[in-house]
Design brief:
Layout (H helix, E strand, L loop, with lengths): L11 H11 L13 H14 L13 H14 L1 H16 L8 E10 L5 H6 L1 E3 L4 E11 L4 E8 L8 H12 L5 E4 L6 H8 L4 E4 L16 H11 L12 H24 L1
Helix pairs in contact: 1-9, 2-3, 4-9, 6-7
């Protein structure tokens, strides 16, 4: 690599794992003009640094090349596949079973921006967070690794998303997840029924009645840490995307980067 490296660049160890997932055609294919690793570095630079597509540095591939390849990767589901395989490997390295028996459900609200275009104008208002924008509904295992994620308008209630989250968790893990920890936004008979149909029992973790200041909730703190991991990627600080699928895809990119780094630290 002739240029000076960026802090967001993929390392040799990380690239050795990621390359098979990202290679959708042969390296020597005649239509390939840019090094695939550099294209991935461009996507990581955007996600981590929070820049816009058109402000891609000149020493990385052109922005339209990075954007087009990122769209193809997201459409092919490569980052979903990568995060699921990384999750299984990291669980085994941590002495856990390959598939989890428990999960944690929650959501994070992202403020809309002018860059999110017409979708921002149609986005709902999250009264609890006092934000207009989008919600990323997430399920993680008890180590904080991503199991499932989808994006809705911010005014969508968390309890209404249990059905899709539970279905996606079941698709990702089979029948292994039997329990999901949630907050009081998931109370009610309907979300409990939706989860139970997928073989999952909801366990509502309630705030102490005499709450004073910050309280670390058992089990649920894990998903809050996962939110913090995602928030370190400045492109995910707000909703800058025209498409909800791109916003969801960048969450998988962020978690793939976090988990690649975790795997590399085990090998070092």
């Amino acid at each position: 690599m002739a240029r000076k490296p960026y802090p967001s660049d993929v390392t040799d160890e990380e690239w050795a794992f990621a390359a098979p997932y990202l290679t959708l055609m042969r390296e020597d294919a005649p239509q390939r003009e840019h090094d695939l690793r550099e294209v991935f570095n461009g996507l990581r630079y955007l996600a981590r640094g929070g820049t816009s597509w058109r402000m891609m540095p000149n020493d990385l591939p052109p922005w339209d090349v990075v954007y087009g390849q990122a769209r193809r990767w997201m459409a092919a589901g490569v980052f979903e596949a990568m995060t699921q395989d990384l999750r299984r490997i990291l669980r085994v390295l941590a002495g856990r079973a390959e598939e989890p028996s428990a999960a944690v459900f929650d959501s994070r609200t992202l403020q809309s921006t002018p860059e999110s275009g017409g979708r921002a104008g149609r986005a709902g208002y999250d009264g609890a967070k006092r934000r207009k924008g989008s919600k990323a509904h997430m399920a993680v295992d008890t180590l904080g690794h991503l199991l499932a994620l989808h994006v809705t308008a911010a005014d969508e209630q968390d309890r209404q998303q249990v059905k899709k989250l539970a279905e996606d968790v079941r698709a990702a893990t089979g029948d292994s997840v039997e329990l999901a920890f949630v907050d009081q936004g998931y109370t009610g008979e309907q979300p409990a029924t939706d989860a139970r149909r997928q073989g999952i029992e909801l366990s509502v973790v309630k705030l102490p009645e005499a709450k004073r200041g910050f309280v670390l909730l058992p089990r649920r703190w894990v998903v809050e840490r996962s939110f913090a991991w995602a928030a370190r990627f400045r492109r995910l600080a707000r909703d800058y995307e025209r498409l909800a699928t791109t916003l969801a895809g960048l969450h998988f990119v962020a978690f793939a980067c976090v988990m690649l780094r975790a795997l590399a630290s085990w090998d070092s």
